[in-house]
Amino acid sequence: MIKYNLKCKKCKNIFDSWFSSSNEFDRLKKLKLLNCEKCKSLNVEKSLMSPQVINRSKNIRLNDDSKKTKLLKKKLKEYQNFIKTNFEYVGNNFAYEARSIHYNKKKSKGIYGKASIEDVKNLRDEGIETETIPWIEDKEN
Ligand SMILES: [Zn+2]
């Protein structure tokens, strides 16, 4: 599942929506099935994706072999690959980069990286939305 920030060009409403894949947005838009949740306008576009914080501290343990765990792991991997493709890795500079995007609007690409809980809290206080995602290390494959 992929979450996009969507923006209505008509009423400027910004809302989140989940899609099963990165192509689904385009597909739904083409079919005119995508509209603003507020004014129902079809003039909806993807806006800048929220910066993503890699959450290693809450590293989820996915060691059992149950079907459910495997499926979850697969979904997380898909999401992770999507982030790797579409976002720029900024490592420990996350808080700095997130601010510079927010205040200067200079990047068109989303970012992902590491940040402390404190950083995330401060960013949110400044009105900078971030998403925290669990991250599966490659060695856990
Ligand atoms: Zn609207």
Quick recap:
The chain is an alpha/beta fold.
Structural commentary:
- This protein is of the alpha/beta class.
- The protein folds into two domains: 2-47; 63-125, no CATH class.
- Helix content is 33%, strand content 23%.
- It contains four helices and seven strands.
- A four-stranded parallel sheet has the order 5-6-4-7. A three-stranded antiparallel sheet has the order 2-1-3, with helices on one face.
- It is globular.
- The chain binds zinc ion.
- Zinc ion binds at residues 8, 10-11, 13, 36, 38-39, 41.
Topology overview:
Layout: E1 2-8, E2 14-19, H1 24-30, E3 44-46, E4 52-55, H2 67-86, E5 87-91, H3 94-104, E6 110-113, H4 117-125, E7 131-134
The protein binds zinc ion.
The site of zinc ion (ZN) has 8 residues, from loops.
Q: What is the percentage of strand-forming residues?
A: 15-25%
What sort of overall outline do the alpha carbons produce when their principal axes are compared? globular
Tell how many strands the DSSP assignment holds: 7
Ions and ligands: zinc ion
Counting H and I runs of at least 4 residues, what is the number of helices? 4
Spell out the helices and strands N to C. Answer: EEHEEHEHEHE
Radius of gyration: 16 Å
Are there runs of 5+ residues with pLDDT below 50, and where?
A: none
> How do the strands line up in the largest sheet?
5-6-4-7
Mean pLDDT: 81
